Each structure stands twice: as structure tokens, then as C-alpha cells.
Fold each of these.
Amino acid sequence: MTTATPAEAATSPDGPSHGAVGWRFGTVALAIAVAVGLLLGYGAGWLTPTLTRPGDTSAEAGFARDMTTHHTQAVQMALVAFKYGQDDGITQLGVDIATGQQGEIGIMQTWLRQWHLDPTGSEPRMAWMPDGEQFKREGGLMPGMATKEEMDKLEAARGHELDILFIDLMIKHHLGGIHMVDAILDQSDDPQVTEAAQRMKNTQQGEIDNMRSIRDRIQ
């Protein structure tokens, strides 16, 4: 039995097409990095306690709960892109988005524990957003989130097809996330929430610009 070399494994049609980034940053390493990002997010959340606690029906609590769900789908999409993408720029984005947003999930879940609130609240999803009812009428999905059919298609895609589909879905996802961030920035005066939300917006806008550049290059 012949053992494939690292170069052969990286290019094998039966194995993931990660390119140089994927080989350096294996699947196990990414899983560890995502877990570490979550733990670091928990730590960052504890470092910035609030003097007053948002209530169960507050915009801050709604944002933390809904953005956690929103980020969870982004992490899922990013891991698919890392594992099956063809372009090195796409696999690197998979790493960046999965680890970055998992860390932010940790921060938001820490807020809820600091505020003595449950991960799920008494209000309907998106009730904290002024235009939340609009999105409920559009299938119940939060802004920019992929449908089940879109997620199934992404998970079945490979190579260049996956790269393009991932970019299109993630740009839409990030734009929806920025819409949610803008909503909390308009409503909240909690410094830890607004500072974290602004960082999310800046990061996601930068990733959108990067994805558009990659799309122009590979389409």
C-alpha cells in the first residue's frame, strides 16, 4: 500500500481541495481554532461588564440572541468553504469568518449570562428590530440568512462552483448582518454592545470588499 505525499493528498480528487492555506491549516486545527475563538469571546465578554443590565425584552438582549443565530449559520457556511473551496482566498476567508464569528458568539453569550438572561427570550425573533415584522413576512429568516435550499446547495457544491456560491451567499449574509448591527447602533447606548457591534460592522464590510475582489478575479 502506497502512502500519498502531502502534495498528492492536497490535490487528490478524493480529498479536500484546500490549496496552500488548507494544507497549513488543517481541518483539526481549524476546529481547535474555532473552539479557542469561542473561549476567547467568553473571556472578552467578562472583561467589559455593564453597570446596568438590559432586560429580557431589550434591544440589546434581542440583538445578542438573534445575532448568535445569524453568526452560527455564517460559521457553518465558512467551514464548508474551508473544506471544499478551490481558491486559496476562499479557504482563507473560511478560516477568518469561522474563527472570528465564533469568538463574537462567545462575547454575546457572555453578555446574556452577565445580564442574568436566558439564551432564548420571551419575545419573538427580530421583535427588537423596528422592521423585524418585514422579515418575518419573508419566510421568518433574519436579514441575509440563507434558506435551507440554499444551504443544501452550498453543502453539495465543490471547487469553483462552491467558491462562487459561497461568495454570493456570504455577501448577502454579511449585508443582512450589517443591517442588524445598524439597528442596534441606533437603539443602544450600552458601550460594550455598541463597541462590539461597530467592530462587527467594520469586519464584515472589509470581508464584503474582499469577497467582491475575489469574485472579480475568479469568475
Note: DSSP finds nine helices and no strands in the chain.
Amino acid sequence: MAEGGSGRAGGETILAKLSELMFVEIIRRHLETLPDNSRGWLSGLRDPHVGEALRLIHARPREEWTLDRLAREVGLSRTAFAGRFTHYVEVSPMHYLARWRLQLAGRLLERPDVSIAQAGAEVGYESEAAFNRAFKKFVGVPPGTWRKGRSALLEAQRLPPIVVQ
């Protein structure tokens, strides 16, 4: 509280970092209170192997991940890794990877300076056609249609400029 009202140099930066630290601490405490039988992404973080796989997927989404490669990276057999990941996260590792990539691609598609092919390549799809198929499968519409609908929605939500007379 004192830092917020001090007006000292660097105060905004300190407050931003403190808020990040507080957020991490809240997540830590929440993880510690989850029951042993809980499921979901956060529960997966508690498991050392699944947590490492999630960190790899999030840090390097465009990498050519396979089930075998992820399993090797986290030190488990393919079968043990797939079962453990699915047990905690409630979807298969490859399904999770696809959803994560498409979430990232959706953010990229909100930018008018990024083409559909660029968005797909940025998140790990080798061809625009493969990206289009995956996007339509998970989202329900092709990326171009989604982008147009998203742009129209954002435009409708934009407030008109204030005119001072």
C-alpha cells in the first residue's frame, strides 16, 4: 500500500512485479489445497511428469511433439505417460497440445497483420490446410470465418468516439 501511494521512481514496476508474485503464490496455495483425487490442468501441474509435459507444451508449442517424444522428455514410457496425463488433465496429451495451439492461433488471428498461414505456422502446423482442418475440427468453423465473425463482434462492441461540441 505504501509503495502505491509513494510516487517514487520505479513504483509502477515494483507494483507490477508484486502483483505477479502474489498471483503465483495464490496459485501455489490453491494447488496445495486440491484434494488428491482432483482432476484438471492445475492438478496435472502437481504431478512431476505431467507438470513437466505441460511446461514443455506451453513453452514450445510449435515444436513437433509426438506422444513418444513427450514421454521420453519426461522420463516415462509412452503408455505410462499417456495414462498419467489423461488421468490428471482429462484429455490426451495430443488433444491438449492441439487445443493449446489453437488457443494461441486464435489470439494471433485477432491481429489483422497476421495471415491465416502465418498463425498456423507460428503454432506448429506445417501447412495452411492442416491448420484449417484442425481449427475447424476444434472450433467448428474455418479460421477465416472465425476471424471475420470475431472482427465483426469486436467492431460491434467498440464504443463510438466521443464528440465534443
Note: The chain is about 70% helix and 0% strand.
Amino acid sequence: MTSAKAAVQGLIGRILFRDATVTRVEDVGRRFRRLVLSGPALRGVNWTPGDKLQIFLPGIGTRTYTPLRWDPSTGETELLAYLHGDGPATQWAKTASPGAALQVFGPRSSLVVGGTSPAVVFGDETSLALARANGVPGRTVLEVTDPGETRAALDALGFSGATLVARQANEAHREALVDAVIKALQAHPGAPLVLSGRAAAIQVVRQGLKARGIGLATVKAKAYWAPGKVGLD
């Protein structure tokens, strides 16, 4: 990155972003890391479960996370990073340590969950924080690479009862994904559906529901990632 570009990013950061500090870090298995951020600028903030928070990483840009919780009285929030691949954001999450200073933008509206009418949440390993923020395990369906590892991470978050569907080559698990989502919707009539995680999996579920003649009044979707693309939020 050129010095001029770095200077511009630094100026934007000072104007738009809130200062925060990493105060606690905890490894949750091999591929998940919980990070607690705090600071005076995080106090008195209005947060709705499902809101997004963008972290400014110098030389990289912003990466988006869904806070597990937000305490406006103490100015503290908590993130869960899924450590997959070797990208810059993963390296940051792996190496972040207490005392590290950073800048954050938000929280801002993204996928509203929880409240008086919790959603049925579909996603993957990148959706654990969203599912936890929704607060209802029985309404969560996750596409995952390692069910045992993901289950251990959910247990560490005090969140049991999610349905986990193992990925298979060539999307051979597509019918299992659709079956699991339909079962969750049938168990909770009228619940809104929130689709998150891998872009292609979101399309699989949408098309599967349509093919089976299942119409929904409320569906919200946001792809968190797709192969070969970065920075989705």
C-alpha cells in the first residue's frame, strides 16, 4: 500500500470509526476464536441482535463480523472469528492479543434476529454469532465441514440444539440442507427465515424450498462469503 493511500485510510478511520481495544481472547477449538473488544466509544450504543460491526484492518480494509453481544453500559462487545483459509483477516484474528488497538464502524443494521419472533436461521461456520444472537438453538440449521468441531464451539457458547449438516463433494448434501430447513420451519410456523453464510448454499436452500412449493412471507438473506471473493458482508 502506498503511503498516500495509507494516510487517506487513516484519516477516514479517525472520522468515521470508533476506537476500541482487544481486552480478551479465547480459542474455541482449532478454528474459532472469541474476541472481546471494549472502550469508551462503545458505550451508550444502540445494538440489535444481528447487527454487523466492521473492523478496520490497516493495509487490508474492513472485515465484517456479527457481535455475539453488546453491553452499552460497560462499552464491551464480543466477536467470534472463524479461522478458515490463510487470508489477512484470518491472520489478524489468529494473532490478535489483549491490548491491541483497533477501529470499528457500527454497529449497523444487517440481518435482524431474535426479539419476540425469533427467526429460523440457516448458515454455516461464519454464522455462529448470528445464530447465537438469535438466541434459539432449535431454530438453527448450519452447513459445516466438521460437525464435531462446530458442535464443540457451539457448546462453548452455551448454544446447543442446532442442526448440523455435513458438507459433501459436488453439493451432494443439498437435499439434506433443504430437508433440515423445512423441518425447522414446520416446527416453528410463522417464523421468519434468515439465510446467511455461503452464497451457493443460500441459493440451494432458496431453490429447494421453491421446488417443493414452500412459500414464505418473510425471507432475508445475506451472503457472508463465496469462493474467490473477499470482504462480503
Note: Residues 144 and 166 are 5 Å apart (CA to CA).
